[in-house]
Write a structure and sequence with these properties.
The chain contains 15 helices and no strands. With 208 residues, it is an all-alpha fold. It folds into 2 domains: 99 residues, Death Domain, Fas (Orthogonal Bundle); 81 residues, Death Domain, Fas (Orthogonal Bundle). Helix 3 packs parallel to helix 6 and helix 7 packs across helix 9. About 2% of the residues have low confidence.
């Protein structure tokens, strides 16, 4: 079931999927940001220049070897769904397994329903930075970023509100053990329903 270790056949099917192969770095960051976010993706691209299939294969092998039996079907499906690849997950694993993985996430003891309990991705940070750039300061305050940091960010990015918000979000992510989608949605409520809706759209929780 979804708690079983992934197989080589499953990983091969993922690598052969053209959509995933073309944007495999997104999947890598959703699978294990600590492993691939600090230059891991760049290193794989340097090792296998202009060869996306070998790159994604190498990434999946590294992830599987590192986590062994903890590299489960559920984690892989969840990462794919975080990349908005539910259809591809269903093609590879079947609709039943995808539903089981989604239900398992929803039943998590932390109380946050999926997808709000998911760890936020770099792609989502960029989308929020573009959508809510005018609220960078309010969101920074809501996320409890120190005033000194906010002043430095304002001075550093005098003419770019989007970069201000992105740096605010990066500071927040560095501070939190698990920066979740739900926590950011809560922070965006500081400016009312409209800001929350804009945030949810940027995060892909509701259609744009």
């Amino acid at each position: 079931m979804v708690d079983q270790e992934v197989t080589d056949d499953m990983l091969l099917k993922i690598a052969l999927n053209t959509t995933i192969c073309a944007s495999w770095s997104h999947l890598a960051l959703c699978l294990d940001y600590e492993m691939f976010g600090g230059g891991g993706v760049k290193l794989i691209k340097q090792e296998h220049v202009d060869d996306p299939f070998t790159q994604v294969t190498s990434m999946l092998e590294k992830w599987h070897n590192h986590h062994a039996k903890k590299a489960t079907v559920q984690k892989l499906i969840t990462a794919m769904c975080n990349c908005q690849w539910e259809r591809q997950a269903e093609e590879i694993f079947g609709e039943r397994l995808v539903k089981l993985a989604t239900q398992a996430n929803a039943d998590s003891p932390d109380g946050l329903p999926d997808p709000l309990r998911r760890k936020i991705t770099p792609l989502q940070l960029m989308e929020v930075s573009k959508e809510l750039l005018d609220l960078w300061l309010e969101i920074g305050v809501a996320l409890k970023i120190p005033k000194g940091n906010l002043k430095n960010i304002e001075h550093k990015h005098r003419d770019d509100l989007s970069k201000r918000l992105f740096e605010v979000l990066e500071l927040w992510c560095d501070r939190e053990v698990i920066p979740t989608v739900g926590a950011l949605v809560e922070a965006c409520k500081c400016k009312g329903v409209n800001a929350e809706v804009r945030c949810r759209k940027a995060l892909g929780l509701i259609p744009k």
